[in-house]
Amino acid sequence: MAKQSGTNKAKENSKSTKKAFSKGDMAVYPAHGVGCIESIETQEINGDTMNFYMMKIVENGMTIMIPTSNVESVGLREVIPETEVPQVYEVMQKKAQASDNQTWNRRYREYMDKIKTGSIYDVAEVFRDLFQLKLEKDLSFGERKLLDTAQNLLVQELSMAKDVDEAYMIKEIENLFN
């Protein structure tokens, strides 16, 4: 049996097992970031009564309705614990995957797919790869937007996990690359 790397083990741990969230809980919604469960509401849809988490995204105030029965399939998960932050830093400090032979739009699709997984480790890989690519050449408009998105998602969750403000977290991430 092959030995799992620490990062792979951490990735598995960050994929939430089905968790019941409560009002006031902070959670991560893929591609949107950290939000607060503001309420749990019951609504009737097509004759079926369903429960929904009403989640307000911290960054933009958008409210998302998430069926409580679909938490796993949509990727809603808890914010990582502070003890997992060093593992995220490890991912960011690894050498970027070479993607010189791919067109920018193919890279863009691959990066977008990773961001949509909701895994902070996948988001960290996207940030690392685009940040390092930016040092070698100009990024396309789409790649710059993805880099910003990945950075925002990382900063939101890591600052929440470490209980520090976002400005501090931005500096800490920048220091990883210096």
UniProtKB/TrEMBL annotation:
Boundaries of every CarD-like/TRCF RNAP-interacting domain copy: 20-131
Pfam families, alphabetized: CarD_C, CarD_TRCF_RID
Matching SMART domains: CarD_TRCF (SM01058)
Coiled-coil segments: none
BP GO terms, sorted: rRNA transcription
InterPro entries recorded: CarD-like/TRCF_RID, CarD-like/TRCF_RID_sf, CarD-like_C, CarD-like_regulator, CarD_C
Name this protein carries in UniProt: CarD-like transcriptional regulator
Organism, scientific name: Desulfobacter postgatei 2ac9
